[in-house]
Write a structure and sequence with these properties.
- The protein has 492 residues and is mainly α.
- It has one domain: Up-down Bundle (Amino acid/polyamine transporter I).
- Helices cover 70% and strands 1% of the residues.
- Strands 1-2 form a two-stranded antiparallel sheet.
- Strand 1 and strand 2 form a beta hairpin.
């Protein structure tokens, strides 16, 4: 069998060719949760970068475009629901591919419950007073409700799920772009290009370039998800062309969106005092900005953020279930996960498994810590592992083109870009793990429960290594399966 020759797995194939560029693009867009990221993740960076946060976002955009390029180059020849693990297996070694799949199968499955916690917390915060019901009951009830609704979309199939994500993504982007434009107009003479320099990075201990780099770490967190198009490769028309476009275009488009919205908030709020932006409006700065310029129109912004969390959960559910499906198909996870609905072609067993896991985490983590703290904890865990996978993917791109596509090798696309991508993500990885303060001054130990991220990742990795040893000794053929590309026609 040729290296890229497609094969069919029989009745448990996914719905081949069910979606196109638009749906795949918004799979990545909504996985980044642009409105939610602007409202929460990026705002945290203001405490470090101050009024220079726009520059931090610009730096994060460059870093993410570097890894997006590497993912796109790999997806051209390796369109697989396995995504990252197939890239690592073919570029580096099947053992590395297995470990990447092992890590990604865990952290990607946390994305959906993370968003359910946020959704429940937002709804409870608004309705607690009017309904006179306990906050805990409200957030848990709404979190369960949105988990079931997302699972329902996943069961109905990728066509319905992806089109829903497209509509939701358009709404949140339109609302925040409109608000950003309004803020820029209202800022009037306060508009300036100085916020793209280091002059407004004045936080104690984080002045100048140090603050800008520290702020960019939190901006990078907002980009995680642009790669989520890759697991939908087997359900995409012309995946070798469409998936690379979707990955790069989503990172670029949402990066520009982040720069625009951050700039608008900075010049309207005031760059000199922007270090306190995250606390503005009682911790909901964008809602407060909307109240000041739109009055009752703030409800649109609230709905956009709420919509963003639901769309993020939907995209996370899609990526998780396809990864589980791919690993179940080759026997690295229970083979039942590779079962698909006979009519809808959705991986319905994996969808049910994701729902059960989400419900368990909603109560296991949400009840002792509350929805917001639980959200930050799980999001930090996801961030640490995904950034590590970005580093491996950059290296896999370089080695794959040197080893298997030497005739196509470009020193820029397959040499310089992957190396720069590795360098760009090291600070974010150290920050997410809460280590490396001796090397990078802005890396600080994480507070509890986020301090558990490093040990949890360590334990999960050790379990993966033990499983790898078993597979090497008893089932080596399963590891070699990580290199396969399961599609139904030869890839040019």
């Amino acid at each position: 069998m040729g290296a890229d020759l497609a094969v069919s797995t029989g009745r448990d194939d996914l719905a081949r060719g069910a979606i196109g560029l638009r749906e795949v693009l918004f799979q990545s867009v909504t996985h980044m949760a642009p409105a939610g990221a602007v409202a929460f993740s990026i705002a945290v960076g203001a405490a470090y970068a101050g009024g220079s946060l726009s520059l931090s976002v610009l730096l994060a955009l460059v870093a993410c475009l570097l890894v997006a390029s590497s993912i796109g180059q790999l997806a051209r020849h390796l369109p697989s629901a396995g995504g990252f693990y197939t890239y690592a297996a073919r570029g580096l070694h099947p053992w590395v591919g297995f470990l990447v799949g092992w890590e990604y199968s865990l952290v990607e499955s946390l994305v959906a419950p993370v968003t359910y916690l946020v959704f429940g917390g937002l709804m409870a915060g608004v309705l607690e007073g009017p309904l006179h019901l306990p906050y805990g009951l409200l957030w848990a009830g709404f979190a369960v409700l949105v988990a079931v609704a997302t699972a329902g979309l996943g069961y109905l199939g990728i066509g319905i799920s992806a089109r829903t994500g497209t509509a939701l993504g358009v709404f949140e982007i339109v609302v925040f772009v409109a608000l950003a434009a309004w803020l820029i107009v209202q800022a009037g003479s306060r508009n300036q290009l100085g916020v793209f320099g280091t002059g407004y990075a004045t936080a104690a201990g984080f002045t100048g370039a140090t603050g800008v780099v520290a702020g960019s770490v939190y901006a990078i967190l907002a980009f995680i998800g642009f790669e989520a198009a890759a697991p939908l490769s087997e359900e995409t028309k012309d995946p070798g062309r469409v998936v690379p476009i979707a990955v790069i275009a989503s990172a670029l488009t949402i990066g520009v969106f982040y720069v625009l919205t951050t700039y608008a908030a900075t010049v309207f709020f005031g760059p000199g005092k922007f270090g306190t932006f995250a606390q503005f409006g009682g911790g909901s700065p964008w809602i407060e900005l909307a109240k000041q310029v739109w009055g009752v129109g703030w409800i649109l912004v609230f709905l956009a953020v709420l919509n963003s969390t639901f769309a993020n959960g939907n995209a996370g559910n899609n990526a998780t279930t396809r990864t589980w499906y791919a690993m179940g198909r080759i026997g690295l996870l229970p083979r039942q996960l590779a079962s698909t609905h006979p009519v809808r072609r959705s991986p319905h067993v994996a969808v049910a498994g994701q729902l059960v896991l989400s419900l368990v985490l909603i109560f296991l983590v949400g009840i002792p810590f509350g929805p917001i703290t639980a959200f930050v904890f799980l999001a930090t865990l996801v961030t640490a592992v995904v950034i590590a996978i970005y580093l491996v993917t950059n290296l896999a791109c370089l080695v794959y083109y040197l080893r298997e596509r030497r005739d196509e090798f470009s020193w820029l696309l397959h040499g310089v870009v992957p190396v720069l991508g590795i360098v760009a993500f090291v600070p974010a990885l150290l920050t997410a793990l809460g280590i490396g303060g001796q090397v990078l001054s802005f890396v600080s130990p994480l507070p509890f429960p986020n301090s558990l991220v490093g040990p949890i990742v360590g334990v999960w990795t050790v379990l993966g290594l033990l499983y790898l040893v078993y597979l090497v000794r008893r089932q080596p053929d399963r590891l070699r399966q990580t290199e396969r590309v399961f599609v139904e026609e030869a890839i040019p």
